[in-house]
Each structure stands twice: as C-alpha cells, then as structure tokens.
Amino acid sequence: MAKLENKIDFVVLVSVNRANANGDPLNGNRPRTDYNGFGEMSDVCIKRKIRNRMQDMGQAVFVQSEDRCDDGFGSLSERASAKMKGLKDRDLYAKTACETWLDVRAFGQVFAFKDAKGMSVGVRGPVTVHQAVSASPVEIESLQITKSVNGEKSEKGGNRTSDTMGQKHFVRFGLYVVKGSINVQLAEKTGFTQEDAQLVKECLRTLFVNDASSARPDGSMEVVKLYWWQHNCKDGQYSSAEVHRSVHVEIKDPTKLPDSVEDYEIAVTSLPGLEPEVLHGI
Predict the structure, then answer these.
(1) % the chain with pLDDT above 90
(2) CA-CA distances (angstroms) from residue 142 to 18, 20, 42, 245?
(3) Confidence of residue 155 (pLDDT cuts 50, 70, 90)
(4) What average pLDDT does the structure give for the chain?
C-alpha cells in the first residue's frame, strides 16, 4: 500500500432531474433549500452514499445503514464491541479501527459506547466533504398522491382500510456542486493510502449507482463531471478554497428556468502547475 503523499482536492457536479436529492424530515421531506432558494445536500447525505459505494466495492464499513447491513450487527455499539473487544489503549483502539474500516480511516469516527467503560476514542479523518449547493435557485414541485394502505382490515368490519392522501416533492431540475479535500497529515495518522484515495474517487464518480428509490428513480441523479486535483506536495500548491473556486458554473440565461446541464456555462480557471483530472460520472 502506497502512502498518500500529496494533498487532493475535488469538485463534483451533480444533476438532479425531477428527484428529491435530500429531503428534510423537519419540513415534510421537501428537498432542502436555503432562504434564497438554492438547493442543498448535506455532507452527511453525501458521505452516506460514499459509504454505500464502498460496501458495493467490497470494503468494510463501520457506519452502515440498516438496509445495507452486511455483517449481522444491529448497531454501531455491537459492531465496535465485536471488533474492538479487549482493547483498552486509546491509540491501539483508534489504530485498529482505522485498519478495520475504510470509512473510519477516511472520514473519522467517535467511539463512545456504554460498554467501553468510560473510554471515548475520537478519530479525525482526512477526507472532508462540504455541504453541496445548487449553482442556481431550484424550483420545488409537489404532487398529490394516493397512498394505498390495504394492509389491514378496517376496525369497523370492512374488507379494507381506506386509501389516504399524501404529497411527493421533488426538484424540477438542479445542478449541485459538491466540494471536498483529502489532507495528507491526517491521512498519515489514520493510515489512509493512495489506493484508498483512488477508491474514494471511484465512489464519487459512481455516487448514485445502486441508489435508486421512489424519490430518486434511476437516471434522475447523475454525476456530470468529477474534477480531481492531486497537488505535488503535502500542504498543496494552492489553498483548497482557491482550487474549489477555479470551477465556475453559471446559468446562461438567468431569466429562464434551467432544465438541463446545457443551460449552464461550466469553465475551469487554469492554476499554473496544477491541472485537474476530469472524469465523466455515471
């Protein structure tokens, strides 16, 4: 395994076409937007999808969703107890956790469970992901739907319970910008390698593979472009902020609601000595 010796920055452009990119449970599961109408996807949502792709690629992951559990453990506490049993030294605990699970050595993790006898272990991961924001304000549409609940007999003796009305919300179209970085100093502490970085890159390129649902039908979420910068030194030739700013996404006609990627002008400012690898996503 090759050590990660060069800082990495990345930008992912994601198109959302009549789908709910990231619903807000405190707002009727409507797609998240800010006060100016720009669409949002939380960093937690994005990292969940990256973890799912890690699992698809056969990697061991600590934070698993219930429907994607592949090791039989019902909680994070159970998983940690089984794998970390008998470890009392904090440094050894963190080292073993990083060696065991890719998402721990990538994103970090706090281990603070009841059976740890008061021991709390924190791991800072080298991979950071920003909250994604759409390049222009998005239009949210809602559909009135009928939910069939013919699963039980009516308490009044009828043959079936009545259907109920509900709503389904989605973004008409949006182009979201995901930004992130990989820090070499933190990678050295967790054992995150160059091979791990390549896995993360592939996860980002294929972010929505096996992610289809009624809220996000196949084809409604797409990685349009992945820009990947690998610097020539540990600290980076440029700041992450400057690298991220080099990608410009502007709507061509502000008076028209965009309905495809072609409605945006996408350009990358050249940074002397640092050229991105540009990948088409899925």
Answers:
(1) 82
(2) 10, 11, 21, 34
(3) low
(4) 93
